[in-house]
Every structure is written in C-alpha cells, then in structure tokens.
Design brief:
The structure holds 2 protein chains of 2 kinds. Chain A is mostly helical. Chain A contains 14 helices and no strands. Chain A has a single domain (16-353), classed as ABC transporter involved in vitamin B12 uptake, BtuC. Chain B has helices at residues 41-48, 71-75, 93-98, 113-125, 141-154, 171-183, 195-198, 218-221, 224-229; strands at residues 3-12, 15-25, 30-34, 56-61, 64-65, 78-81, 159-163, 187-191, 203-208, 211-216, 233-239, 246-253. Chain B folds into 2 domains: 1-77 and 157-213, P-loop containing nucleotide triphosphate hydrolases (Rossmann fold), CATH 3.40.50.300; 87-156, no CATH class. Chain B has 9 helices and 12 strands. The chains are: A mainly alpha, B alpha/beta. Chain A: The chain crosses the membrane at residues 17-36, 76-97, 109-127, 134-154, 166-190, 211-235, 261-290, 302-323, 329-349.
Chain lengths: 354, 254
C-alpha cells in the first residue's frame, strides 16, 4: 500500500520511514494468519501463499492450507482494510469538522447499518432475498443521506454559511439521525425479535469477522484503497483546514465541494466496511489521535501512518479476539476498546510529558 | 494590483451588514480601514477576500470580477489574515507558515526548495524564524498573530487583507508589523482600531453602520468632526513638531 509521497516541509520526522509500511503490513498479515487456536508455522503459510499466488507446488497439509487460505488470510486482509478505512475516515472527519470527537459513525452510518441489518434479519424485509450485509449497506446510506439533508437544512437555517456553523450543523444532524435510527432498531428488535436473534444482532453490531470469505476481500480491498487514495490526494486540502473552513477557503480550497466529496467518500467506504464486519468501534476515533501524537498533524505523514496503524491494530485485535478465551471468539469491538483505551491513555500521558 | 468594490451589499438573516460600498484601492497602496465595533470592517474584508458572495454588487481584482475566479485563483492573488483563527492541532510554526503555499501546490507536485525558501523568508519577515520549530499551542497571542501574517506572506499575495492584525501585539511588534506592511510593495487593506496607527496608511476608509462614509488621505478623513460623528469621541488634533505628523488626543466619549 505504499504510495510515493512528496517530502514534507517540516523538519523532524520526515517520510523516510514510509518504506517500512509494506513490511509491517505484510508481517501483520502473516501474524494474523499464523496465530490462532491451531498455530501454523510461518513457512507453511509462505508455501500456501506461493502455491496460491505463484502457482508453485509445495506439499502442504490440506487442512492447514484450507485454514490459511480460506479462513485466516481472508479474515486478516479484511481486518486490515477495515482498520485502515475506519481510521482514515476518522482522520478526515476530525480534520474537516475541527472536532476531536468526530468518528466514522458520526454521520449515522453505524446506526443506519444496524437498522438495515435488523430490518432484514429480524423483520424479514426482502423475504430472504436480501443479505444481512446488503441490508446494512442500504441502511447506512439511507441514514447518511438523511443526516446530510438535515445538516444542509440546518445550515441554511442558521445562514451565513460559515465553516464553523456548517461543522456544527453536521455534528448535530449526525447525532439526531443516529438517535432516530437507533430507536428504529430498538423498536424492530422489541417488536419482533426472539432472544436468540437479539443476541445474534448484538454480536454482529459489536463487530464480527467470523463470516469473512474471499468474496468480502474483493469488496474490502478496492474500498480501502479508494479511501486511502482519496485521503492522499487531498492531504494538502486537509492540512488547509487546520484553522477552520474560512481559513481553508482563503488558501484556495473550494470548501463546499472538497468537504462534500471527502465526507461522501469516507461515508461510502465506512458503509462498505460496516456491511461486511459490523460496526467496530474505537478504531476510527482513537487511532487518528494516537497517530497525531506520534507523527504530528500534517496529513502527508498522518494519512499513511494512520492507514498502517489502523490495519495493524485491527489485525492484532482480531488475533486477540480469537485466542483470549479458548474455544470462543470474542466480539472484536470488545477487544478494540479493551486494548485500545489503555493504550491510548498511555500515549496521552507520554505525549504530555514530551 | 488594484482591488475595488462596486456597490457592495451584504446581509445576514435580513440584517444589512454592508450597504452600497464603493471602494478603490490602488496598486501598492496601504489602505487603512477604521470604524467602531460592528461597523462592517470584517464583513467588508471577507467579501473582498471572496469568502462570502455579495448580495449585490461585485469585487474586482484588477479588471476581473472576483466571482468569475476559482477559489484557488483568488488565493494566488489575495491573502487574508483573520481576526481569530485557532487550532488544537499539534503543528509547528514552520508548518503553519508552509500552509501559505497551499494555493500553489497540487496533489502530485512535490514540495520544492523554492517553497522552502519562500517559507523561510516569510518567517524572517515576521521575526519568527527563531521559533520555527515551536508548537502552536506554546505561542502567545501576539506570536500567533505574527505566524498568521507569515502564513499570508508565504502566499506571496498581490493583495493582502489584514483584520485587526495588531490586536494582541505588544507595542514593539505593533509598530514593526505596521512598518512591514507599509513597506510591502503590494496592495494592503488593513483594519485597525488605533487611529494614530491608521494615520500611517496611504489612504483611510471610515466604516459606519455598514457604509463607507469617507475615504481618502488620512489628514483629510480623520477630522475632529469625523471623530465625533462616527467614533463618538471628543478629540484634539495636534501636529507633532518632530516630524510634522498629525496626532490625535482623545478627551472623552460623547
């Protein structure tokens, strides 16, 4: 995922560290494939990869090959894509809205996805013709659309069109839209779900990589790459928002189209990820902040660093969710918060000392 | 480059903030904008910078109407220093000034040595080069203001708009910023509260209730009558024997 980048003006941390990103990502993917209830040696993984990708003909145990290729590798790749996308969406929303609490689900996406999923799985919308993922995806986009319309109406209501007001309107509209869809979800569950269904939905909402197969990879990888490219392309525009939307405009950024395009792109990518694995929390909120502490807030460095950290963090969380309790897979959202919160506290404290 | 406003009108929620403002600032001129609180100085500067579209009338840069230009093209000619622009980001002084190069960079263009040199010069101009690696949140209000001006200078604008840039500065830096601004070979429009500082400008415009009520050379504009009428103060005007400049002494509010 390495992209040739320009040198930043800032002294201090340059961009020379970028060459390690593909290596770290590869190492994380291999770790995600090797570690599990049945540990698999790295050389076996490499042989399977060579067989599958390069058409080699190494002798590998059939069951091992199946676990590696069909189960763990696809899962690790989707985890990486999901981590990258959510973390980048967090970077973009925090930068554009000038709000440290902004996260990928701010725009009603997770709330809409859960309503969509519940509508399909519990209320039986589509009479079995729709998949849970598709329901979630449609729900996410629907909620996002409503939030955008609400934000637009609120913004023209307050008038002035100043960037600060626009950001405030987006955040308020997001909260209102999320509440609406959460209430719809709760309504559908209480109306028609059995206890078993409700538990399944809860599990799905906290994030679940168990059902991931290669078909999901072909969706997740392009979406994540698209998100990454959009962020890299607009890294200077994102920097220009440092002092708010007006300041960005005075430095030549066409605020409305650029902000609209970035938010819609991130919403789409987030909706894809949520529809595959559910609403994994914490990554999109905290990885960007952690990376700002480490590499600074210039997006030429922040975007690649966040993309990598998000991927590695989610692969790591997935590994932990599989091995922490033997015989049981914990929801990955539980792990991201349990591990992430103390880790973030540590970064905050260390950052303060510097 | 000449900047002019033709019959500019601007309102928010039906409240008129600017009414029929006509203004021409000649190329290379330093134009001081004065007026009491809420007289429309900031609104006028925002319209001149292309941040808001006028309800009626137009802004011309050279002979070109501003509304026909893209935001990026405007930013390549006009730089604005806002009154209050804050951030919580961990960003260094040098990085802030480097933001000024944004209108000249595209996504695929690398950061060049020329950009680096322009940023260094801008830091020198505002006397901040010794703090280039300091983080934004460690700076005082006055230092932040100087960095913002440095950022605007890094835009290498043909027109520089400054909204009360001397507000938080100590007297030494107030004077040095004014001197710097006056020396710049570009067109400058600067809103000021200190009327004695405004006397240093080539021309002055007086805003009152959203209207530009007078404009011209300082001595002809800032008269005892004007100070009473627009600013609501009794003032005496002296001639300083040292350099024959005109000095105002404010006695009391009306």
């Amino acid at each position: 995922m390495r992209i040739a980048l320009t040198r930043s003006s800032a002294a201090g941390l340059g961009l020379r560290w970028l060459w390690i990103t593909p290596i770290v990502l590869l190492a994380a993917l291999i770790a995600g494939t090797a570690i599990g209830e049945t540990p698999i040696p790295v050389d076996t993984i490499l042989k399977v990869l060579a067989n599958q990708l390069l058409g080699a003909d190494y002798a590998v145990d059939r069951i091992d090959a199946g676990i590696i290729w069909n189960y763990r590798l696809s899962r690790a790749v989707v985890a990486a894509c999901c981590g990258t996308s959510l973390a980048l969406a967090g970077v973009v929303l925090q930068a554009l809205l000038r709000n440290p609490l902004a996260d990928p689900y701010l725009m009603g996406i997770s709330a809409g996805a859960s309503t969509g999923a519940v509508a399909v799985a519990v209320a039986g919308l589509g009479a079995g013709a729709l998949s849970l993922s598709l329901g979630a995806f449609v729900g996410a986009l629907l909620a996002f659309g409503i939030v955008v319309m609400l934000a637009h109406a609120a913004n023209s209501g307050v008038g002035g069109g100043r960037g600060v007001q626009a950001a405030g309107a987006i955040i308020l509209a997001g909260i209102a839209g999320s509440q609406l869809f959460n209430a719809l979800t709760a309504f559908i569950i209480t109306k028609s779900a059995s206890a078993e269904q409700a538990r399944g939905i809860m599990f799905w909402l906290m994030g679940n990589l168990s059902g991931v197969r290669w078909a999901d990879v072909t969706l997740a990888v392009p979406a994540a790459l698209f998100g990454l490219l959009v962020c890299l392309w607009h890294r200077r525009s994102l920097d220009a928002f440092t002092f708010g939307a007006d300041s960005a405009a005075s430095m030549g950024i066409a605020v409305r189209p650029v902000r609209g395009m970035l938010i819609i792109s991130m919403a789409l990518v987030t909706a894809v990820m949520v529809s595959i694995v559910g609403a994994i929390g914490f990554v999109g909120l905290v990885i960007p902040h952690a990376m700002r502490f480490i590499v600074g807030s210039q997006h030429t460095r922040l975007v690649p660093a966040t993309a990598l950290a998000g991927a590695v963090f989610l692969i790591g969380s997935d590994i932990l969710s599989r091995i922490l309790v033997s015989g049981q897979v914990l929801p990955i959202g539980v792990i991201t918060s349990l591990i992430g919160a103390p880790a973030f506290a540590l970064i905050l404290v260390r950052g303060k000392r510097h | 480059m000449q900047l002019s406003a033709e019959q500019l009108t601007w309102a928010v929620h039906g409240t008129p903030l600017l009414v029929d403002v006509n203004l021409t600032v000649a190329s290379g001129q330093t134009f001081g904008l004065v007026g009491p609180n809420g007289s429309g100085k900031t609104s006028l500067l925002r319209l001149l910078a292309g941040l808001n579209k006028p309800k009626a009338g137009q802004v011309l840069i050279g002979n070109q109407p501003l509304h026909t230009l893209k935001q990026r093209a405007i930013a390549q000619s006009i730089a604005l220093v806002e009154q209050q622009a804050e951030t919580t980001d961990r960003i260094t002084v040098r990085e802030v000034v480097a933001l000024g190069r944004t209108p000249f960079l595209s996504a695929l263009q690398p950061w060049s040595d020329q950009n680096e040199a322009i940023v260094t010069q801008a830091l020198l101009d505002v006397d901040m080069q010794h703090m280039a690696n300091r983080l934004w949140h460690t700076l005082s209000g006055g230092e932040r203001q100087r960095v913002h001006i440095g950022r605007a200078l890094a835009q290498q604008p043909k027109v520089l708009l400054l909204d009360e840039p001397t507000n938080h500065l100590d007297i030494r830096h107030q004077l040095s910023i004014l001197k710097l601004v006056k020396q710049l070979p570009i067109t400058v429009i600067i809103s000021l509260h200190d009327l004695n500082h405004a006397m240093e400008c080539d021309h002055i415009g007086v805003m009152d209730g959203g209207r530009l009520v007078d404009a011209g050379p300082p001595k002809g504009v800032l008269t005892a009558f004007r100070l009473r009428q627009t600013f609501g103060v009794y003032a005496d005007i002296f001639t300083d024997p040292v350099d024959n400049s005109q000095v105002m002494r404010f006695r009391s509010a009306l």
